[in-house]
Amino acid sequence: MKRVTIENVSKQFGQLYGVKDVDLEIKAGEFFTFLGPSGCGKTTTLRMIAGFYYPTKGKILFDEQDVTRLQPNKRNIGMVFQNYALFPHMTVDENIAFGLQVRKFSKTEIQRKVDRIRRQVHLSNYGDRKINELSGGQQQRVALARALVIEPDILLLDEPLSNLDAKLREETRIEIKRIQSELGVTTIYVTHDQMEAMAMSDRIMVMENGYIKQIGTPQEIYHRPVDRFVANFIGETNLIEGILEAIEGEEIQVKTANGHIFTGRKQQSSPALTHMIGDKVFISIRPESIHLGTGDNTLTGKITFVEFTGISVNYIVDCNAFSLKVMLINSYDQIKKIGEDITIHITHDSLYFLGE
């Protein structure tokens, strides 16, 4: 396993930038995810690490080795593509063995390595199966085994679960994380799925329009987003616009358009917030942090939407000048109806303040 360092890397396509001024260090053995919407630059960055694209400027290093212009087949990387890129006319074992054969390992060594990795991906009895005889999840594990059997320094995964149904995606992401943890290989994962990124990653890089917006642990990015884009993109949130009305010690007061005043903690703010009286401020409130009844930051409103998911009941509450998404976990015994009045509250620590 190796450390990956990206130094001031940009990639141009004609006059347009796919990636701009990316500086990043991925630790050896880390599970690191590139996250963002389509076209944000995450796959372009992955392809530069793989060697399929060369940067327009900047450097890429594996440990201390400069690989910026090194051919892909000389980087000792394993890669799993979105469509798996398996050979349909070959068996499971033949697919897994392909990279070892290219590297001219002996037949005995190839079989030993293939048997071992097949057990690790839970396909022990599938060696003689054809690819078209496997389920989507099994094919995904064959692709993963083929990438890992060469014992790569770095494993790259580009949207590997996007072709699976929701249940299978969950099962497979657990398997990928288990295998990665057991092998300790440095892993870079590309996805637009926030849940996948949050569940699997040691750290996440959020990208937008070719730029890095934020790098941090899942907890840091979820609870302390740097701006409205990250707050909106990671999970669900309510963003309410207001004016910074007062600062009293460690407390902030923000007044909304309908005159409601929210009170929260000064420390629960984005680093970009200047804390100047009269500034425009956006309050980020996660739906699961809203509770029934009275308390800090009490609000009353009318229910306009109800959704039962099994795990939770989700409401949309009209609070006059703004609406709030509310998630009540395991409250199915007290489901309210559309049109009912409701009283809710949000603790001071559950408000997060963002600048304009």
UniProtKB/TrEMBL annotation:
Keywords per UniProt: ATP-binding, Nucleotide-binding, Transport
ABC transporter domain: residues covered: 4-234
Keyword Ligase attributed: no
SUPFAM superfamilies in alphabetical order: MOP-like (SSF50331), P-loop containing nucleoside triphosphate hydrolases (SSF52540)
Domain of life: Bacteria
GO molecular function terms noted in the UniProt entry: ABC-type transporter activity; ATP binding; ATP hydrolysis activity
Gene Ontology CC terms: ATP-binding cassette (ABC) transporter complex
Protein name: Iron(III) transport system ATP-binding protein
